[in-house]
Amino acid sequence: MTVLDDRIAMAESNNTRQLDEMFELLEKMPVPEGYKVEIVGGAVCTAPQRDIHWETIRMILWALEDRFGRQVTLFSDVRIDFPGYRNGFCPDVAKIRDGAQKNGKGKWRYQDVEFVAEVISKDTARNDYDRKRTAYALAGVPVYLIADPYARKCRLFTHPENGTYVSDTSIDYGGEVDMTNTHMGLVLKTDGFPHD
Q1: Rounded CA gap, 55 and 104, in Å?
Q2: Distance CA 130, CA 7 (A)
Q3: Are the CB atoms for 183 and 142 separated by under 8 Å?
Q4: What is the C-alpha separation between 196 and 100, in angstroms, rounded?
Q5: Is the distance from CB of 131 to CB of 86 less than 8 angstroms?
Q6: Best CA proximity match to 160, nearest among 176, 178, 139, 146
Q7: pLDDT at 5
Q8: What are the respective helix, strand and coil percentages of the chain, to the nearest 5?
Q9: N or C end of the chain: smaller count of CB under 10 Å?
Q10: Residue from 140, 72, 120, 141 nearest 100 by CA
Q11: For the chain (length 196 residues), average pLDDT per consecutive 10?
Q12: What 8-state DSSP symbol labels residue 31?
């Protein structure tokens, strides 16, 4: 190991310890039922889960299960730590690669995330479009999908490179999100996505 490798490992360890402490405190707080809580760039973010939000998540989960089978490793609102300053995200949908194992602390590793979908909430939309997109690109998440029921659009980000996504495609609700040129190998129909 080089000195730089040692410093990176130490920073990641310190970042994880601080996130663990923050989440332990959050677990003791009275977060209202129906609210999602995550840490983005060291800031605690909460957002209400509306029916539009959950229905969209369900439709994405169904499409992934139809494509990959019921045994696929999918999560909704499960903490995964991503690169950057205190990024303990709870993606709306995350697909973990086949054969992945949790780390020594019982957590999924960002290096094993193959797909993330976030459904926009009005109060936290900026995180999904900016900070999370950057963190997912830095993590090398190959496919990142945003479903925005307010704009009635999906944004598909692929080909992460140097902290950004090279490909950014916008699809109006009612259209099809074509992921056949990615490892996902599927077309997601959005004609049934609920919207505001």
Answers
A1: 34
A2: 27
A3: yes
A4: 37
A5: no
A6: 139
A7: 45
A8: 35, 30, 35
A9: N
A10: 72
A11: 43 65 67 66 67 92 97 92 86 96 92 96 83 94 97 97 95 98 96 92
A12: P
Q: What amino acid occupies position 165?
A: Y
Residue type, 61: L
Which pLDDT score is estimated for 9? 45
pLDDT at residue 59, as a whole number: 97
| Cα-Cα end-to-end distance for the chain | 52
Domains in the chain: ranges and CATH: 3-189 (3.90.1570.10)
CA 134 → CA 57, 89, 128, distances in Å?
A: 22, 13, 9
Tell me the one-letter amino acid at 59: M
Q: Contact at 8 Å (CB) between 82 and 56?
A: no
Give me 18's structure tokens. 């601080």
For residue 98 the two structure tokens come to 């086949």
Per-residue model confidence (pLDDT) at position 146: 97
Per-residue pLDDT, 190: 97
